[in-house]
């Protein structure tokens, strides 16, 4: 699989009713060779026709191939081939030689390639035989032969039966052909290679193309992680997306208040790679409880990887709300029939005072369960000299709540009536709309307490 890990986490397990939290989406992708280790026999033609530029270009291509496999398996160009994969070098002319065994050292492999010299005939059968012999029959690694040649068979047994026997043992064979001085039989390469030939055989008349052909073949063998990734995230109706952080990989955009899209052109193509996206959501639902954050999340890429993300939940706890003063009782009114107008006597309503009504809300922080709270509100009016005048004091008992943890308690609609005839603003005494200044003080304390003096006597 190209995608080796997918995750979705939130940064807290509980929030208040209108609280926010951060959501993190994470992906890790890697070339398929990381999770499916492969042993590769790199078989290189050093016959006499390779003398000069062809040999030099082949060496460059072979070393590029080694670098790409090293990077794809999590190693470095000058380090080790990783993730359990190996490369072995076989070279051939009149006979074949195992220049290395199946190893991981990049330097040793490159030194073996650099040490090749051209001369002699072309013995493909012995090259296939020596390549197959490099593989450990007890290993579960995939087995691959990469055969490079620039000419037809001029020595040894017919190579086709040897190649067929290798394929029968599960070995995958790729062929790179360079049209050299004595030509190359493309049909023979098609016969040796695994099917289909379109992806397992490459031929060029130009030695300058060899590095590119070796690079393309290395990418084909390692199998890219994931390309053209599209992730669509939709949060539940209890939440809205408030912001999206710019991801280091790819780009993300908000489609509407509850959905976003994250696109990544490629991930884990040449080496293991991770990407993350952070975005913030706010709870807008009316009810508390355990809430799913995302309604749905879909993933697609060009490789057809199947990806599942976790579905995290958060505990939403809404503040306790207390209304210490009841609103006036409503008077019922009903209209029936098709009358154009209705006249109803609703009775009398008394004006409490010629003044203004100040209505205040206050939140008492961190009220623990089972504890009643005494709340006092003190209102003063301030004249132009800063002198305060008492305008009212209210005390009330806030009932205990039964939430499992300490909570904030919102006390709503604490009302004071301030008559106009007590106006100390210093303006026109006859005016009803002078600007007036007030101060409010709140005193709050638990009523229920386990405290008692040492000498106290408790009577039951």
CATH H-tier superfamily of the largest domain: von Willebrand factor, type A domain
Say what the CATH topology of the largest domain is.
Rossmann fold
Number of distinct helices: 8
Question: Mind describing the biggest β-sheet?
Answer: 6 strands, mixed
For the largest sheet, list the strands in their spatial order. Answer: 6-5-4-7-8-9
Describe this structure in words.
The protein has eight helices and 23 strands. With 460 residues, the protein is an alpha/beta fold. The protein folds into three domains: 3-31 and 225-317, Sandwich (Immunoglobulin-like), CATH 2.60.40; 33-222, von Willebrand factor, type A domain (Rossmann fold, 3-Layer(aba) Sandwich); 352-446, Immunoglobulin-like (Sandwich), CATH 2.60.40. The strands form six sheets. Strands 6-5-4-7-8-9 form a six-stranded mixed β-sheet, sandwiched between helices. It has a four-stranded antiparallel β-sheet with strand order 1-3-14-11, with no helix packed on it. A hairpin with a 5-residue loop joins β20 (373-382) and β21. α2 runs antiparallel to α3 and α4 runs parallel beside α5. It is rod-shaped. The model has no long low-confidence stretch (mean pLDDT 88).
């Amino acid at each position: 699989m190209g995608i080796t890990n997918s995750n979705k986490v939130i940064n807290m397990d509980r929030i208040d009713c209108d609280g926010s939290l951060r959501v993190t989406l994470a992906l890790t992708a890697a070339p398929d060779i990381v999770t499916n280790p492969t042993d590769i026999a790199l078989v290189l033609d050093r016959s006499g026709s390779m003398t000069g530029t062809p040999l030099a270009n082949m060496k460059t291509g072979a070393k590029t191939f080694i670098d790409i496999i090293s990077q794809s398996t999590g190693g470095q160009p000058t380090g080790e081939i990783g993730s359990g994969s190996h490369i072995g070098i076989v070279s051939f002319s009149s006979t074949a030689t195992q220049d290395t065994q199946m190893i991981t050292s990049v330097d040793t492999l490159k030194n073996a390639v650099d040490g090749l010299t051209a001369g002699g005939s072309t013995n493909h059968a012995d090259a296939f035989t020596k390549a197959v012999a490099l593989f450990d029959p007890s290993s579960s690694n995939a087995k691959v032969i990469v055969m490079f040649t620039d000419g037809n068979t001029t020595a040894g047994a017919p190579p086709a039966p040897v190649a067929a026997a290798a394929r029968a043992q599960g070995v995958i064979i790729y062929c790179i052909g360079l049209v050299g001085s004595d030509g190359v039989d493309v049909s023979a390469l098609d016969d040796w290679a695994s099917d289909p030939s379109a992806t397992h055989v490459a031929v060029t008349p130009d030695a300058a193309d060899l590095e590119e052909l070796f690079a393309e073949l290395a990418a084909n063998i390692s199998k890219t992680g994931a390309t053209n990734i599209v992730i669509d995230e939709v949060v539940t109706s209890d939440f809205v997306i408030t912001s999206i952080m710019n991801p280091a990989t790819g780009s993300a955009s908000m489609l509407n208040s509850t959905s976003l899209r994250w696109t990544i052109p490629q991930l884990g193509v040449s080496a293991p790679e991770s990407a993350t996206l952070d975005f913030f959501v706010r709870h807008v639902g009316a009810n508390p409880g355990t809430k799913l954050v995302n309604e749905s999340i879909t993933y697609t890429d060009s490789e057809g990887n199947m990806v599942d993300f976790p579905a995290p939940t958060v505990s939403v706890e809404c503040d306790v709300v207390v209304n210490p003063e009841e609103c006036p009782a409503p008077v019922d009114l009903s209209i029936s029939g098709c009358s154009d107008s209705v006249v109803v006597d609703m009775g009398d309503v008394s004006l409490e005072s010629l003044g203004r009504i100040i209505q205040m809300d206050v939140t008492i922080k961190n009220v623990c369960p089972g504890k009643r709270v005494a709340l006092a509100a003190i209102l003063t009016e301030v004249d132009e000299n800063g002198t305060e005048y008492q305008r009212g004091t209210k005390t009330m008992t806030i009932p205990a709540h039964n939430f499992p943890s300490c909570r904030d308690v919102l006390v709503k609609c604490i009302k004071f009536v301030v008559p106009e005839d007590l106006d100390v603003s210093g303006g026109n005494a006859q005016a009803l709309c002078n600007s007036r200044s007030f101060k409010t003080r709140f005193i709050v304390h638990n009523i229920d307490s386990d405290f008692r003096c040492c000498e106290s006597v408790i009577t039951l």
